[in-house]
Specification:
The complex is a heterodimer.
Chain A: E1 4-13, E2 16-26, E3 31-36, H1 42-50, E4 57-62, E5 65-66, E6 75-78, H2 90-102, H3 111-127, H4 143-155, E7 161-165, H5 173-190, E8 193-197, H6 201-207, E9 210-216, E10 229-236, H7 240-259
Parallel strand pairs in A: 3-8, 3-9, 6-7, 7-8
Antiparallel strand pairs in A: 1-2, 1-4, 4-5, 9-10
Helix pairs in contact in A: 2-3, 2-4, 3-4, 4-5
Chain B: H1 11-39, H2 49-61, H3 71-103, H4 105-120, H5 127-134, H6 138-163, H7 166-174, H8 179-216, H9 222-229, H10 235-263, H11 265-273
Helix pairs in contact in B: 2-10, 3-4, 3-6, 3-8, 3-9, 4-6, 5-6, 6-8, 7-8, 8-9, 8-10, 9-10
Classes of the chains: A alpha/beta, B mainly alpha.
């Protein structure tokens, strides 16, 4: 049975059609990479799964229930920037997730309860490799370390779905490689279902178990905004046949982007 | 030789350059005062330093014959009480209403136009209304400071809340926070240093309205005294009072900045890094 079902979803802002006719279903444990040109709506789809945007038409189902129309614990998120709280240390940033649940009035915990949360938080901090920096504040961390922190934070709630919005877009290539290893490890160990938006098609191939390519099928040269993007390729990357298609597609795609 | 715009003075030179203008002004004043007093020893416009220190001695360190009080300290206490209370209430109102309307679109829709209009009313124009409705006592003067500063602080805090990256607010929700928890654990701590900045910027306005209110109706206060002794052209009292007000304003601004740096180091380091 599928975990997430996208059922004839359309999205428009006023006259501008962003996405149209999306029909997809995703099983638990899949790692979906979403690629496409800028402004093609991949981030919009991510935001609809997150709940900070709602579909104009159609619906998204999580476990056969319509997905909540606002962000909640079911779906974790790592943004490209501003994913962590600047006023809290690394440890506090991770602990706050469970403190919200433990103390509905103050959002703070004390004594034994605090120790238990701290213990759990330290495990996740260890897992993302930030154990040496628990007392540092986000502005004292490098971009890569901030993203590690954001991942640890999201893992605290064991979300069904983890959303990544160009999480490594602002990082150096070397650090990106490390982050890829980390996210692959986190994905396997926590049995997560991940959706990742990326600009880098190679990253999509390297990381995902499934790749969605967004593009406009219908074009009106007079009114470019009349039609939205659809998913033109839905590739299972663990099947060799698909992988071969994917590679040639990627080459074509890279050329197309380079020509623009 | 470097271009002029690239020359950065060394540390001791910086200190020296900062002091020079003050020294020059003092010397100019001293010369002008001496000249006038040589011509007419009873001239009151530019009192000598001795006359000024005599006046300070009389106001600050001698009991007043009529009331038995030290007028200078009486005035200082009264003014600090008014401005302190006014600014405190303004800051609290700014924090409360600014956060509410910044965070909750429902409230913002109803509240924001009102505050925009209210903040455009010139407070001095409604001073008579304040005197009529609150009497000539402390309340009217404190109210004037509040009316003069609170709307600006509310608007500023509302904007600051809205300028927090929406990613942060969404992230908190994905970690399970409800509106209340987002308000007290995510927004409030990030807004506090910005509130202090807003208060520091509104201190100048607060002093302006304090002195205006005291000039019109009061029995004591720094502004009251200045406007009282103006009748006798007592520049020897006015000048030290003005200097004292300036020093107080500086001390308030300075201590607010230090408090902010002490309590919210992450904010100041982050701003410095930008």
């Amino acid at each position: 049975m599928s975990l997430l079902k996208i059922d004839n979803v359309w999205k428009s802002y006023g006259d501008v059609q962003i996405l149209e006719r999306l029909n997809l279903s995703v099983n638990e444990g899949e790692f979906v990479s979403m690629v496409g040109a800028s402004g093609c709506g991949k981030t919009t789809l991510l935001k609809m799964i997150l709940g900070s945007e709602t579909a104009t038409k159609g619906q998204i189902l999580l476990d056969n229930q319509p997905i909540a129309a606002e962000p909640n614990e079911q779906r974790g998120i790592v943004f490209q920037k501003y994913s962590v709280f600047p006023h809290l240390s690394v440890l506090q940033n991770v602990m706050i997730a469970d403190e919200f649940a433990a103390s509905k009035f103050f959002g703070r915990t004390f004594g034994k309860q605090k120790q238990a949360i701290k213990h759990k938080a330290l495990e996740f901090i260890q897992a993302v490799g930030l154990a040496h920096a628990i007392d540092k504040y986000p502005h004292q961390l490098s971009g890569g370390m901030q993203q590690r922190l954001a991942i640890a934070q999201a893992l605290m709630k064991s979300p069904k779905i983890l959303l990544l919005d160009e999480p490594f877009g602002a990082l150096d290539p070397g650090i990106r490689k490390d982050m890829h290893q980390l996210i692959r490890k986190v994905w396997k160990e926590n049995k997560l279902t991940i959706f990742m938006v990326t600009h880098d098609i190679q990253e999509g191939f390297d990381l995902g178990s499934r790749l969605w390519v967004f593009d406009k099928v219908r074009q009106d040269p007079q009114v470019p905004s009349a039609y939205g993007a659809q998913i033109t390729y839905d590739l299972q990357l663990n099947e060799p046949a698909h992988l071969a298609t994917g590679q040639s597609l990627a080459e074509k795609y890279v050329k197309k982007v380079a020509n623009l | 030789m470097k271009k002029l715009m690239n020359i950065e003075p060394s540390r001791p030179l910086k200190g020296f350059l900062a002091i020079i203008p003050f020294v020059v002004i003092l010397i100019l004043y001293w010369n002008a005062s001496n000249e006038r007093l040589a011509e007419n020893p009873y001239d009151k416009l530019l009192p000598s330093f001795t006359q000024i220190s005599d006046a300070v001695e009389r106001m600050a360190f001698t009991e007043d014959k009529r009331s038995g009080e030290y007028l200078f300290w009486e005035d200082t206490g009264a003014s600090l009480y008014r401005i302190g209370l006014g600014v405190l209430i303004s800051a609290s109102a700014g924090l409360l209403f600014g956060m509410l309307s910044g965070l909750l679109p429902v409230l913002r829709t109803g509240f924001s136009p009102l505050i925009t209009i209210v903040s455009l009313i010139p407070p001095m124009a409604i001073l008579p209304i304040l005197f009529i409705s609150f009497g000539l006592g402390e309340l009217a003067k404190v109210m004037l400071i509040i009316i003069g500063t609170a709307p600006v602080i509310i608007r500023d805090i509302q904007n600051q809340v809205r300028q927090l990256p929406s990613e942060i607010i969404v992230k908190a929700q994905t970690l399970g926070a409800n509106t209340w928890l987002v308000a007290i654990r995510v927004v409030l701590p990030q807004i506090m240093p910005r509130l202090i900045t807003a208060v520091r910027l509104s201190l100048g306005t607060a002093w302006l309205f304090l002195i205006a209110a005291e000039a019109i109706a009061a029995q004591e206060g720094l502004g009251y005294r200045i406007f009282l002794v103006r009748r006798y052209m007592s520049m020897d009292v006015i000048l030290p009072y003005v200097l004292w007000i300036t020093a107080l304003a500086f001390a308030m601004d300075f201590s607010l900045r230090k408090i902010s740096e002490l309590c919210f180091p992450w904010y100041h380091q982050q701003e410095a890094g930008k």
